[in-house]
Specification:
Elements (H helix, E strand, L loop, with lengths): L1 E9 L2 H30 L7 H12 L12 H20 L16 E3 L6 E2 L3 E3 L9 H4 L3 E4 L11 E8 L4 E8 L12 E5 L3 E5 L4 E3 L5 H23 L1 E2 L2 E2 L3 H34 L5 E4 L3 H4 L6 H7 L1 H14 L4 E4 L25 E3 L5 E3 H21 L1
Parallel strand pairs: 8-13, 13-14
Antiparallel strand pairs: 1-5, 1-7, 2-6, 3-4, 4-5, 6-7, 8-9, 9-10, 11-12, 15-16
């Protein structure tokens, strides 16, 4: 199996300049490829392969106008051309939408590194072509410091290294191949009910709270709202006619807002990873979840923000790939399965159950928390689904 590792980079000023230069060159090569493909299509030509376009791009670099392309590693532009060709081909196959040109202002700066030439030490990564000189003091420019020590192994084959800028920091993402797990979990299966009051309620009586209700996140959200209003007032104050004048103070405030958004996102992502890892570490024989209609749930204007912050789709994605690493089958119940309305004792379905009814009361005398009951029903659904698959 292939696992992806993402580590933050800590470049100096010269390295930051080089990173942006590489990213801008990759964007230029991508846009140039799309332009050539579109021009060729309008003239009645067939699809141009990435090999032919790379040869054409090599001739382009020999001209005086585009001599600056020679300052960047050849592998960066090669992969950008290949990516554009794949995106163009996938559109005609019906897999994706039509590829768009990358904007200098709005697109994410990123580029590819050759998986053979890239090198890792415990604390640094070597990026190809930053310094051409072989002198030791010049070669130091190639080595960028990693924020985490010993996170990436140094003696293995690397897959698809990519370097990306998120608006604040540079990150490197790399795939590493590991041996498949042979351990088959034999513990009791788990049913998981996702909700807004609590993030996840498990059938084994484990409950994971909603991180967005914690005081830390509430304080950050309050700061975010105040900062957004402050920026909006400054824009109105510096309005000139029909356009807005962006001052240095506005730029500073927008950068602060970006950092705040990143911090909130990181807190939520870290909590999701922590929760899903704890569930997987209990080594259940199976995990059963419900196929939630998140798009339909988002139409409720009173709950849409809370649903969005819970990241149900990301939770399910993490459970699925982590379970696959550990040979745990994931069963997804149909979205019309009455997990909350079905009595876990007698099997009666209470059709008039409202969202405000947090305690389920059945005619048979069963009184239980509705979310915990949903988790029990999902566990039973998973057991029946496994029995059918075996039979």
């Amino acid at each position: 199996m292939i696992k992806t590792i993402r580590v933050m980079l800590v470049p100096n000023n010269k390295q930051k300049t080089k990173l942006f230069q590489y990213a801008n060159t990759a964007r230029f090569a991508y846009n140039w490829t799309l332009g050539r493909e579109q021009e060729n299509y309008k003239n009645g030509g067939k699809f141009i392969s990435d090999g032919d376009l790379r040869k054409e791009f090599t001739q382009l670099k020999k001209t005086k106008e585009y001599a600056w392309l020679n300052n960047v590693s050849n592998n960066v532009t090669k992969q950008a051309i290949k990516d554009a060709c794949e995106a163009y081909r996938d559109f005609f196959k019906g897999y994706t939408k039509f590829p768009r040109f990358k904007s200098k202002k709005h697109s994410v700066p990123k580029f590819y590194q050759d998986n053979v030439k890239i090198q890792f030490a415990d604390t640094h990564v070597k990026v190809e072509g930053f310094a051409i000189s072989k002198k030791k003091n010049k070669q130091k420019l190639n080595w960028i410091r990693l924020a985490e020590k010993g996170r990436i192994p140094t003696d293995c084959k690397y897959i698809n290294p990519r370097i990306k800028y998120d608006g604040i920091n540079w990150w490197i993402t790399i795939g590493i191949e590991y041996e498949d797990s042979t351990n088959i979990p034999s513990n009791e299966g788990i049913g998981i009910d996702l909700g807004i009051k609590d993030l996840a309620i498990c059938s084994d009586e484990h409950k994971y709270q909603n991180i967005n209700k914690s005081q830390k996140v509430k304080n950050l959200e309050k700061r975010k709202r105040r900062l957004q209003r402050s920026i909006s007032r400054r824009y109105e104050k510096n309005k000139k006619g029909g356009s807005y004048c962006k001052t240095r103070n506005i730029v500073k405030s927008e950068k602060e807002l970006l950092k705040l958004n990143h911090r909130l996102t990181n807190i939520r992502q870290n909590y999701l990873h922590d929760t899903t890892s704890k569930i997987i570490k209990r080594e259940p024989s199976f995990i059963c979840m419900e196929d939630l209609n998140v798009k339909g749930m988002m139409k409720n204007k009173h709950l849409s923000k809370a649903i969005q912050q819970q990241c149900f789709g990301e939770f399910r994605r993490q459970i699925e790939y982590k379970a696959q690493w550990n040979n745990i089958p994931v069963i997804v119940a149909d979205r019309f399965f009455p997990s909350s309305k079905l009595c876990s004792c007698c099997g009666n379905i209470k059709k008039d159950l409202k969202l405000s009814d947090r305690i389920y009361k059945c005619e048979c005398g069963n009184v239980i928390d509705r979310d915990y009951q949903a988790a029990l029903n999902l566990k039973r659904f998973g057991e029946l689904a496994l029995e059918k698959s075996v039979a």
